[in-house]
């Protein structure tokens, strides 16, 4: 466990490892982290830092895995009293032994004393956990989450706890669990906050202030816009890359296919990497972000058709223009 204070806006790129058992970790490491060097330019949705609500002193973390552990380490270092709830006693003990949290246990009743709770369980458990928390929390408590897709979560969680604010810290590692937690993981990384119409602005300000204290660059968007953006930069590349692999695999001429496999080099390696990853990951993307993914796949098909049309009709000027725009604008995503 390392600690650090002070702000690096643009952390060095991480060396990504091969995959492991967690779909969510891979979702972030394989597809989102290549954006780590993106300059943090102000945009229309970039959020100003509000002052931290001084009444927030005690923070709860439910789910002491990678993300929950990283949050706990940073928040404790920032001076908050941090209560953690894990599923297994082994995780509780490890969190206490390593001073990741101030107090920990397996019972959500521990959250009765906190001012704000970060729900850091696997995605499918976030809404049920908010429902279970509702019987334990003080009336003024804020609940926020760290789930990687927001549309499925925010409305359902707000129904269960009106003082809910959706959030997504966009940082990760190849490893899972508390043992992989480290300080400052969120520093210099985007943190998207996704309020809806009914969300309390005071609660939103509090979440933004805490994310800013973590050193994150905070963005505010609707859950839908978040899910569409993630579909474009993370989920679409996986499907396109898988389709590329299938195209090559379906080559009918055995000699051509074998030769292609022998001579494939760095370009093919780069463009096929995310499509050749964990199938479970792609399934999760498609199932949990189905509508945004379908929409962006249709747009992609339209782009592909336009390129086919230009080549069929030998409109080389039009093709050149498209390729030039692609070359010029690619850095906007890097
Ligand atoms: P993780 O390392 O596998 O941790 C998940 C933790 O949840 C485990 O420590 C587990 O506790 C705990 N847990 C499971 N069921 C629970 C329950 N019923 N009550 C309390 N705790 C429970 O996963 P993660 O990578 O931190 O991901 C957690 C969330 O962060 C997901 O919603 C994901 O979408 C989001 N996220 C992930 C990344 C990433 O790259 N990893 C980035 C941003 C957001 P035990 O140890 O006791 O089993």
Order of helices and strands: HEHEHEEHEHEEEHEHHHHHH
Shape: elongated
Alpha carbon gyration radius:
22 Å
Overall strand count: 9
Largest sheet: 6 strands, parallel
Give the distinct bound molecules.
NADP nicotinamide-adenine-dinucleotide phosphate
Strand coverage percent: 5-15%
Main sheet strand line-up? 3-2-1-4-5-6
The helix content, as a percent range, equals: 40-55%
Low-confidence spans: pLDDT under 50, at least 5 residues?
1-46
General description of the model:
By secondary structure, the chain is of the alpha/beta class. The chain has twelve helices and nine strands. The protein has helices at 23-31, 66-77, 89-97, 126-133, 151-160, 201-213, 223-249, 254-263, 266-272, 279-288, 290-312, 316-329; strands spanning 58-62, 81-85, 103-105, 116-119, 142-145, 164-165, 167-169, 190-193, 217-220. The strands form two sheets. A six-stranded parallel β-sheet has the order 3-2-1-4-5-6, with helices on both faces. Helix 1 crosses helix 7 (223-249) and helix 10 (279-288) crosses helix 11. It is elongated. Residues 1-46 have low confidence and may be disordered. It binds NADP nicotinamide-adenine-dinucleotide phosphate.
């Amino acid at each position: 466990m390392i600690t650090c204070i002070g702000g690096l806006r643009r952390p060095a790129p991480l060396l990504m490892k091969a995959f492991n058992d967690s779909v969510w970790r891979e979702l972030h490491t394989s597809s989102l982290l290549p954006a780590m060097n993106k300059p943090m330019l102000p945009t229309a949705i970039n959020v100003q830092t509000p002052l931290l609500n001084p009444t927030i002193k005690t923070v709860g973390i439910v789910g002491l895995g990678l993300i929950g552990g990283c949050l706990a380490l940073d928040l404790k270092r920032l001076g908050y009293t941090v209560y953690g709830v894990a599923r297994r006693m082994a995780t509780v003990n490890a969190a206490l032994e390593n001073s990741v949290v101030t107090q920990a246990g397996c019972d959500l009743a521990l959250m009765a004393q906190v001012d704000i709770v970060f729900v850091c369980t696997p995605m499918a458990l976030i809404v049920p956990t908010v429902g279970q928390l509702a019987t334990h929390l003080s009336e003024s408590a804020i609940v926020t989450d760290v789930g990687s897709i927001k549309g499925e979560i925010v409305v359902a969680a707000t129904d269960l706890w009106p003082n809910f604010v959706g959030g997504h810290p966009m940082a990760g590692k190849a490893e899972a669990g508390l043992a992989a937690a480290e300080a400052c993981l969120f520093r210099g990384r985007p943190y998207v906050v996704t309020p809806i119409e009914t969300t309390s602005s005071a609660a939103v300000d509090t979440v933004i202030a805490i994310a800013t204290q973590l050193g994150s660059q905070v963005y505010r968007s609707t859950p839908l816009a978040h899910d569409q953006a993630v579909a474009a930069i993370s989920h679409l590349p996986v499907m396109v890359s898988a389709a590329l692999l299938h195209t090559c695999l379906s080559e009918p001429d055995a000699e051509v296919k074998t030769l292609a496999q022998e001579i494939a080099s760095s370009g093919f390696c780069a463009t096929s990497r995310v499509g050749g990853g964990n199938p479970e990951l792609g399934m999760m993307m498609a199932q949990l972000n189905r509508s945004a993914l379908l929409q962006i796949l249709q747009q992609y098909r339209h782009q592909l058709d336009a390129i086919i049309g230009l080549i069929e009709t030998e409109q080389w000027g039009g093709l050149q223009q498209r390729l030039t725009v692609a070359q010029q604008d690619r850095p906007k995503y890097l």
